[in-house]
Amino acid sequence: MLPDYSVIAWLLIVFSVYLTGVSKGGFAGGFGTLSVPLMALAISPAQAAGLLLPLLLVMDVFAVKAWWGRHAVAEVWRFVPGLFIGVAVGTLLFDSLSEQGLRLTLGVITLLFATYMLLKPVAKKPISSRWALPAASVCGFTSFMAHAGAPPLNVYLLPRKLSKETFIATCAVTFAVVNVIKLAPYMWLGEINVTSAWASLVLVPIAWIGVRNGLWLQSRVNEVLFYRLVILTMFLVGFNLIYQAI
Questions:
Q1: What is the rounded (10 degree) CA torsion for 117, 120, 124, 127?
Q2: pLDDT for 19-47, tens place per residue?
Q3: Which of the residues 44, 76, 185, 191 could staple to 91 if both were Cys, CB 3.0 to 4.6 A apart?
């Protein structure tokens, strides 16, 4: 049986799922960070996260299939230990952490990084790969709490000076990995249940349309504009997270 949400709630859910699909298809997860906060305007954040995870896994199949072979394999392997660490910490602290505090912290970090990238868009040298573990750990944690893994991942990947396609592909594979890691803890904590699973199933076509549209859009955006869009998105996400916290 489907959840008994209001019309406004369903509209926000549909829009959020579509936005996440577009993000998965061609914009490296940035826009998708807005999904849970948008859905949380009408339903609880826990319900929003649980409803969205099965859809993220479906989107990951489409996105990884489209981008497979173009990702930086070494970068993904560097992320795996940190992703497990972040998800494990999120699982252990899930019942004790303040969602408002997490959103506020993540929002401030996102705004600070976006400001840095805006003022210094070209670094003298790429960031060291040793920062992969802490970045992936934060990504795993924030992804577990609110499917908001893009900002900490971008903090590490953007200064690595990857090409646009390699950047998108690496993000697509990394998000697929962390979402698979999150599945068992989500089921164990009860965030995914029969009711949320039915809602997720109904929304699969919206997710598919979003991914296809994202793939279409990214091929029509030049690289300079693309990174400006990423920075702009991070500003929007940061302000949105802070607004949600306040």
A1: -20
A2: 888 877 766 555 666 677 777 777 777 78
A3: 185
